[in-house]
Amino acid sequence: MKQFIDKGILALANVVEVDSTAWFQGHTGAALLAGDALLNDGALNNVSKKSLQAMLVKFTDDNQHLMNPLADSPETTDYSEVVNAIALNAQQLCHSGHGIIYGALFLNVVANNNVVVTERMVSNIAKLIVNCMDDNWGRYYGLADYRQYQPSNLLNKGEIDIQQHCVIAVERSTQDIYHNTDEHFFAGDKLHGITHAHAIFLLDKLGYKELAQQAAQQSLIQLELNDRKPESGLKKVIPQPFDLSDPNIWGHDFNEHQIKLVHSYVELSAQSNQPLAKLDNLWGAVV
């Protein structure tokens, strides 16, 4: 039963109805789509599944402002507006890849589930993705404007192996994890190194090969930027065991980023032809 897909899509589409310039509130719909996938992919035991389901129900209830019905518009299977919005985001790293993440989650659920989507939903989600392109350009440590950052030889000039890229993204995003500060994200950006790579994996799997390649170039830059930090003064994250069989894995409070991270990690683990780095170091930052 895919009970949270319709609510997740509606939540994504409602963000720009509430605030035409908003982007962050897309986390709500993205978390519902990721949570629904976790409930149905067989990775959770019954106890963990029931716990997650209860949290998703409460999360939906707590975000009723994003569950309002949209104005009537024709049904559609034309998602080109969303694809075009993703393409714009793939030209420049912005907001840790959130435009790519929102768009890929949406395209994945409409491709693999029998859902009804309207033209207004598609248009609104495309606007949400475009809104992700306006960032705080000084968000990375030591840079006034990260758009001017010159990457090292990490950048691949040829075709990128997307699956191998995801393995590398997980490896680089689970080492040397430090808590966020008031001025900069550290653990937060490492987390999005994985969810962004997973979104690129979804695009590639869905057949958007060129789009995935463009986004992967930006992801490579992101992985470099995520390693920027001061030499001292940071608090290192204490690792926590990541164990899907633990009935208390979700803790006491719903964490949108936690759910998206687990979904990305679980799906990449299932699809990878080699073991992924353990999540324990990063898990300590989100539980």
What is the distance, rounded to the nearest whole angstrom, between the alpha carbons of the first and last residues?
27 Å
Helix segment tally: 11
State the helicity in percent bands. 40-55%
> Helix/strand/pairing class, anyone?
mainly alpha
Our estimate of the beta-strand percent is under 5%
On the 0 to 100 scale, the average pLDDT is 94
Taken from the alpha-carbon principal axes, the silhouette is: globular
The main pleated sheet reads as: none
Uncertain stretches: none
Cα-atom Rg, whole angstroms?
18 Å
* Beta strands, count: 0
Task: Spell the H/E element sequence.
Answer: HHHHHHHHHHH
Describe it for me?
By secondary structure, this protein is an all-alpha fold. It is 53% helix and 0% strand. The chain has helices spanning 5-18, 26-40, 46-62, 80-89, 98-112, 119-131, 162-173, 187-205, 209-225, 256-271, 280-283. Helix 2 (26-40) packs across helix 10 and helix 5 (98-112) runs antiparallel to helix 6 (119-131). The longest helix is centred in the C-terminal third of the chain and has 19 residues, at 187-205. It starts with a helix and ends with a helix.
List the helices and strands and how they pair.
Layout (H helix, E strand, L loop, with lengths): L4 H14 L7 H15 L5 H17 L17 H10 L8 H15 L6 H13 L30 H12 L13 H19 L3 H17 L30 H16 L8 H4 L4
Helix pairs in contact: 1-2, 1-6, 2-3, 2-5, 2-10, 4-5, 4-6, 5-6, 5-8, 7-8, 7-9, 8-9, 8-10
